[in-house]
Write a structure and sequence with these properties.
Blueprint: E1 26-37, H1 40-47, H2 56-69, H3 71-74, E2 85-93, E3 98-109, H4 114-132, E4 140-150, E5 157-158
Antiparallel strand pairs: 1-3, 1-4, 2-3, 4-5
């Protein structure tokens, strides 16, 4: 028997997937961002196409999209969702000496896509790490955060200092 309200625990304290069946279907969207901070020579190698494994930005873009689609396999009790759109963009940020990652996920449904956007950024960042770790094991994956979400009962959210 499920406890009242949206909770991951039933009345006996057992873990359960939240029951969203009574929630209204609405258009929902979430955008997340993150950085992979690299050494200056690593940044130059990525920029100049000198990574032996290939183009880390292209591979990470695909990995991020795939990661968003696999979120319920990675995060316990996340709902499997029929995503209508997943966009992942990677760019080089010379000022930060980093690969900047942004993911936007959309659907029309009964639950939000914040976890899918955050997972897309995380998987893309880990893929960048994997592709260039041979030359820079000191990379840091940082600043992964939700910058915007819309739809659902809680409405719109925008991070105060969206980087």
């Amino acid at each position: 028997m499920a406890a009242s309200g949206l909770t991951h625990f039933d009345s006996d304290g057992n873990a359960v997937m939240v029951d969203v069946s009574a929630k209204e279907q609405t258009a929902r969207s979430a955008t997340a961002r993150g950085l992979v901070r690299v050494a200056p020579e690593t940044f130059a190698a990525i920029r100049d196409g000198q990574i032996k494994k290939g183009d880390p930005l292209s591979v990470a873009q695909l990995a991020g999209i795939m990661g968003a689609k696999r979120t319920p396999d990675l995060i316990p009790l996340c709902h499997p969702l029929s995503l209508s759109s997943v966009k992942v963009f990677l760019s080089l940020d010379e000022g930060e000496c980093a690969v900047a990652i942004e993911a936007t996920v959309k659907l029309t449904g009964q639950t939000g896509v914040e976890m899918e956007a955050l997972t897309a950024v995380s998987v893309a960042a880990l893929t960048v790490y994997d592709m260039v770790k041979a030359i820079d094991k000191g990379m840091r994956i940082t600043d992964i955060h939700l910058v915007h979400k819309s739809g659902g009962k809680s409405g719109e959210y925008r991070a105060e200092s969206a980087s």
